Amino acid sequence: MKTGFEMQDILQRKSAEDSEFRSQLIANPKDVINKEFGIDVPENMDIHVHESSLQDIHIALPPANIMTEEQLEAVSAGLCCC
User: Fold this and answer.
1) How much is the pTM?
2) Of the segments 57-61, 69-73, 77-81, which one has the largest average pLDDT value?
3) How far is residue 30 from each of residues 41, 48, 54, 78, measured CA to CA in Å?
4) Is 62 helix (H, G, I), strand (E, B) or coil?
5) Mean pLDDT of all residues in 60-81
């Protein structure tokens, strides 16, 4: 299975080469992704496709940390295998 980054790279390359694919990806990203990669994107997952330009750039951030630094340290300490 491809990673999210690999899938994104494939979608970006293909949309740069095929204007019809690009239009479909913008209009129906779930359908295109399901078909392109043979997966089923969950109904409760939203996918947003944005077109960047030289004057308008989009940056996607990962989800904010759910755990505090102390909680992360406590969890990682329990995983020590030395």
Assistant:
1) 0.69
2) 57-61
3) 6, 9, 26, 39
4) coil
5) 65
Nearest to 29 by CA among 51, 60, 2: 51
CB 50 within 8 A of CB 26: no
Distance in angstroms (rounded) separating the CA atoms of residues 36 and 81: 41
Of residues 53 and 22, more confidently modeled? 22
Mean pLDDT of the chain: 85
Q: Which domain holds residue 6?
A: 1-52
Total count of domains within the chain:
1
- Of the candidates 46, 49, 21, 50, the one whose C-alpha atom is nearest the C-alpha of residue 36 is 21
* Residue 2 falls inside a structural domain: yes
